[in-house]
Design brief:
Blueprint (H helix, E strand, L loop, with lengths): L1 E16 L4 E14 L2 E8 L8 H8 L13 H11 L4 H19 L3 H4 L12 E3 L4 H10 L6 E4 L5 H11 L4 E4 L7 H13 L2 E5 L7 H10 L3 E4 L6 H6 L6 E5 H4 L2 H13 L3 E5 L5 H8 L7 E2 L17 E2 L2 E2 L12
Parallel strand pairs: 4-5, 5-6, 6-7, 7-8, 8-9, 9-10, 10-11
Antiparallel strand pairs: 1-2, 2-3, 12-13
This protein binds magnesium ion.
The site of magnesium ion has 6 residues, from loops.
C-alpha cells in the first residue's frame, strides 16, 4: 500500500463569520492510498480554531506506517494505532480513515454507505448554512439559498432576531440555529429559544460554552426545541459525557477521526436515546460523500461544504430536492 498526500487551500464563496471567528479559506490535506491498482481518497479539513494545520498533518502522516493496514481493514485496530502515534489530530486521522473506507469499497466493489449499513432512501435534506453578516448581505445570501430545503443560521451577534426575521421574510423552510457557544445568560437564552420556536426553528447547536455543561443542561431541560452539543462532542468517549446535557449531538468526521468512529457514535447516541445531526467543516466532495454515507442513519444532515466553496477539486456529487444522492459506485462514489 502506498500513501501520498498534498496540501490544498479550499476557498469559500463568502467570508464566513461565526460567533468567534471569521475566514475566507480553509487549509486541507488531500491524500491517496493506493493498493492493488485501486486508489482510496481521503481529506482532512483543518479549520484553524481546531488546532491542526498542514504542518501538523504532514508531520503526523510521516509517522504513519501504511504496512499496518491489511485487508480486510480492522478499523478498531487502525484507530488505536493512530491514537498511539499521537493523541488529538482528528482531522488527519479522519483523512486516513476516509481513504481506507474508499479503498475498501473499491476493492470489494461496494459503496461505502452499504458497507456502513445505511439505506439510501433515508437520506435527510442537507441544510445550507448562512454565516453572520450585515443585514443587506445576509438577505442576499438567504435569497441565494432558495432551492435548499433547510437553512442553518449562525447566531451569536446582537442582531440575532433581526437575522431570523430576514430569513422568515424570504422563506418558510425549516431553520436550524447554531449559537457556537455565543449565549451567556440562562433566562435571556430561554426567552430567545421560545421566540425561535415560534419562528419554526427545529434545532439549536451549542448554545452556551462547552465548558459550562450546567447551563447547557438547564436550557436543554426547558427548551421546546432540540438542543445539540457540537463543540462539546468530539469523539466516541464524549457521547456518554454529554448525555443529559443536550438532547443530541452534532457528529463531524473531522472531530470523530473518521467514519468508523462516527458510526459508533451514532450507534451509542441511539442507545442513549439521543438525536444525531451529521455536520461538516469546509470540505470538498470527498469528506462530504464520506459523511453522506452515514447521513441516512442520522436525524438531520448539515453537509453543505461543497455548496459553500468555490474551488472543489472533485466533481460535485448529485444533489436533488435538497439531498445528496448516494450512488451505487464503489467506495465513496467520488468523481474526479
Ligand atoms: Mg456547530
Amino acid at each position: 500500500m502506498k500513501l501520498t498526500f498534498a496540501p490544498f487551500e479550499l476557498h469559500l464563496k463568502h467570508r464566513f463569520t461565526i460567533a468567534k471567528f471569521s475566514r475566507t479559506s480553509t487549509p486541507l490535506m488531500l491524500l491517496q492510498l493506493e493498493h492493488e491498482g485501486q486508489i482510496g481518497y481521503g481529506e482532512a479539513s483543518m479549520v484553524p480554531y481546531m488546532g491542526e494545520s498542514v504542518q501538523s498533518a504532514a508531520a503526523f502522516l510521516n509517522k504513519v506506517d501504511v504496512s499496518q493496514f491489511k485487508m480486510p481493514f480492522d478499523y478498531a485496530a487502525i484507530i488505536s494505532y493512530l491514537d498511539n502515534i499521537e493523541p488529538g489530530n482528528p482531522a488527519i486521522k479522519a483523512a486516513i480513515d476516509i481513504a481506507l473506507h474508499d479503498l475498501e469499497g473499491k476493492l470489494l466493489n461496494k459503496p461505502c454507505w452499504r458497507l456502513l449499513g445505511s439505506r439510501a432512501e433515508n437520506m435527510p435534506v442537507t441544510s445550507y448554512t448562512i454565516g453572520i453578516d450585515t443585514p443587506e448581505i445576509f438577505r442576499q445570501k438567504v435569497e441565494e439559498a432558495a432551492g435548499y430545503n433547510a437553512i442553518k443560521i449562525k447566531l451569536g451577534s446582537a442582531d440575532d432576531k433581526q437575522l431570523i426575521e430576514i430569513v422568515r421574510s424570504v422563506t418558510t423552510v425549516p431553520l436550524y440555529v447554531d449559537a457556537n457557544q455565543g449565549w451567556t445568560d440562562r433566562e435571556g437564552s430561554l426567552d430567545l429559544v421560545y421566540w425561535l420556536h415560534e419562528q419554526g426553528v427545529q434545532l439549536i447547536e451549542q448554545p452556551m460554552l462547552k465548558t459550562d455543561p450546567d447551563s447547557n443542561a438547564w436550557l436543554t431541560e426547558r427548551s421546546p426545541i432540540t438542543i445539540l452539543g457540537d463543540e462539546s462532542v468530539q469523539r466516541l468517549s464524549d457521547v456518554d459525557k454529554v448525555n443529559g446535557v443536550y438532547h443530541g449531538i452534532n457528529i463531524k468526521l473531522m472531530k470523530s477521526a473518521g467514519m468508523y468512529e462516527a458510526k459508533r457514535m451514532i450507534d451509542r447516541a441511539r442507545e442513549l436515546n439521543m438525536k444525531v445531526l451529521i455536520g461538516c467543516m469546509s470540505e470538498t466532495s470527498c469528506a462530504t460523500l464520506a459523511a453522506a454515507a452515514l447521513a441516512p442513519q442520522c436525524d438531520w444532515a448539515d453537509l453543505d461544504g461543497p455548496l459553500l466553496t468555490s474551488n472543489n477539486p472533485f466533481a460535485m456529487p448529485p444533489f436533488e430536492n435538497g439531498k445528496w444522492i448516494l450512488s451505487d459506485s464503489a467506495g465513496l462514489g467520488l468523481v474526479q
